[in-house]
Each structure stands twice: as structure tokens, then as C-alpha cells.
Design brief:
This protein has 234 residues and is mainly beta. It is 0% helix and 54% strand.
């Protein structure tokens, strides 16, 4: 079984749904300390049942793919948290093979449905949160990302090819033409390009795109500025 990870995995919640939070929002552990810790908090007025699962995270054809794994486990795998209480959970890399490069996983935390009276509107949404997990991270390593933009049968795509060993988190992305006119914009988190991987995102370019453009974005490695010289005219 593989799961495609596209966009946000946390749905908007009506007032009837339970609310839980996870801290930190990214787990990072060096090769010599293969354990991460998160705190789950229940901020609602009712108890919440949670299921914790770990998936190996890779990028295939530029898309995020999650695959079940036994190399990393979550402990406990399930938890019941009372209103206003917290639960500490651990993410443990148990495989004996050393992490020679940065390994990427996702901790998926799902609210488990329990027998409760239906809300007045008859709708009850269950919350899912997805937390990036990285093992074998080297703070001195750096991503090496090359950017290009392509016209495909489905429209425009932005491609990021990372030949470096460390992932890069991309946010607040803009694409502008040579005159500085805004062609497309993504506020907030755009996504990750993992180490030695390629990530792709669909764009909705505005009219007036020319044969060259510039990319501006924020990242966990600093500001990103890149020339996109493979932009054909529609």
C-alpha cells in the first residue's frame, strides 16, 4: 500500500469535532540519537482517541508517496487523551542499519471515531495531522536545488531537483517575469523537496508569461532566488 501525499491533510473542523495539537511540527534526529519526541494535546471539551502510524516518505515522479515501514515505530501506537490533557509519544528508528543519509518519514496521527451522539448538523469531521520526521540529519549538510518550469499536457509545472543530501522546505513562493510582474504566487507552505529527489508543483500562471522568469521563495535554508529560463510562451 502506498499513500499519495498531496497538499494539506488537516480538514477544516466544525465546532462538534475534537481538537488536538502536535508539538513540534517537525521531528529531526541525528544518526546517533534515533528517537524523536512529540507532545499531543487535547484542547477540546471531550476526550479524543488517536492512532499513530509511521510511513516512509519518498518522492516519485515529483510527487510525495508514503509507504508503510517497520524500520520506524510510534510509541504508543494509539492513545486516549482526556480534555485539557497531554500525551507524550516517541518516534523510534529501530532498524539496525545506520542512517548514512537523511531518511524521511511521516508521522500520521488520525482521530479515531468513537460512539457519540451525532451533532445537531449531522456532520462529524475527524482530524488528521501529518508531521515530517527526519533521521540521520546533518545540520552541516545543505540542499542543492535546481529549478525549472515546464509546460505539460495538464498545464504548467514547477520542478525542483535536489542533488544535495538534505531536504529543503519551500514557502511563500512567487514567480515573476523580467519586468517584475507577478505570474503566480503561493502563500504559506508550498512543500518539501527531499534530499536527492525531485518535487513538482502545478502552477496557474497568469497571462503574459514570457520566455524567462524569476522565482522568489522562502526556505529553511534561507531565501531562494532562481532564474527560470525554460518557460515557453503558451
Amino acid at each position: 500500500m502506498m499513500l499519495l501525499l498531496g497538499g494539506a491533510v488537516t480538514p477544516a473542523l466544525p465546532a462538534a469535532a475534537a481538537v488536538f495539537q502536535i508539538v513540534p511540527v517537525v521531528i529531526e534526529a541525528p544518526a546517533d540519537a534515533p528517537t524523536g519526541v512529540v507532545t499531543l494535546s487535547n484542547g477540546s471539551a471531550e476526550s479524543v482517541m488517536l492512532q499513530l502510524r509511521i510511513f516512509r516518505w519518498s518522492q516519485v515522479g515529483g510527487r510525495d508517496v508514503l509507504t508503510p515501514t517497520s524500520d520506524v515505530v510510534a510509541s504508543p501506537p494509539a492513545a486516549k487523551i482526556e480534555p485539557g490533557r497531554q500525551q507524550v509519544a516517541r518516534v523510534v528508528r529501530i532498524t539496525k542499519a545506520p542512517a548514512t543519509t537523511e531518511e524521511a518519514y511521516r508521522l500520521i496521527v488520525d482521530e479515531i471515531p468513537v460512539a457519540k451522539p451525532a451533532p445537531a448538523d449531522g456532520v462529524r469531521m475527524l482530524l488528521r495531522q501529518s508531521v515530517p520526521v527526519f533521521f540521520g540529519s546533518n545540520a552541516k549538510a545543505a540542499p542543492r536545488v535546481e529549478w525549472r518550469i515546464e509546460r505539460t499536457s495538464g498545464g504548467w509545472e514547477l520542478a525542483a531537483l535536489n542533488s544535495g543530501p538534505r531536504r529543503q522546505r519551500i514557502s511563500d513562493l512567487e514567480i515573476r517575469d523580467e519586468a517584475g510582474r507577478l505570474l503566480d504566487q503561493r502563500l504559506g507552505l508550498v512543500g518539501y523537496v527531499l534530499g536527492n529527489s525531485e518535487a513538482r508543483w502545478t502552477l496557474n500562471l497568469k497571462e503574459g508569461a514570457t520566455v524567462s522568469a524569476k522565482l522568489i521563495a522562502a526556505s529553511d535554508a534561507g531565501a531562494v532566488h532562481a532564474d527560470l529560463t525554460s518557460l515557453p510562451t503558451p
